[in-house]
Amino acid sequence: LMHSMVSEATRQLRIDDAFANADADSDGRLCRGDVKVAWIELFGYKPCRRELDLIMQSQPAVAGPTDEFVTLDTFRRLASARMSRLDADGQLRHAFAALDSGGRNFLRAEDLRRAVGLLAPRLAAGGFAVDRAFAEVDADADGRVTYRDFEFAMKFDPDQQ
């Protein structure tokens, strides 16, 4: 819990710093060009026109100039959501790499059995549940689970089907 609080505080500081660094005229809001600069600082890439349009359209309407801009609150919300998605993807890549002990870029049923044997020996004892789970994730039944198969299974939400 403490780690997640520190991570969230660090995330907010990074976002606030990127916003301040990009706010060229220090008016507390970012124009399209400023958003590009802040996005590059945070994520290492320039947002495409479509992504930039979505960012700019996320700003609630306010009375005043009709120029497009993004306030700190809106920027915080959007950048934090983007960082959360990146963090989750990083955790998936890390988990996949930990299971892929052979560094083959795919998992075999033996890899899953080994991991489950270490983490949940009672579940691994029968083996049937592990083999069935592997078969569910192995979409093309080739005996290999690629990262794409793994990612799909980990992000699968049966309530959205």
UniProtKB/TrEMBL annotation:
Superkingdom assignment: Eukaryota
Name of protein: EF-hand domain-containing protein
Molecular function terms from GO: calcium ion binding
InterPro entries named in the record: EF-hand-dom_pair, EF_Hand_1_Ca_BS, EF_hand_dom
Keywords from the named record: Calcium
Taxonomic source organism: Macrostomum lignano
Domain spans labelled EF-hand: 130-160
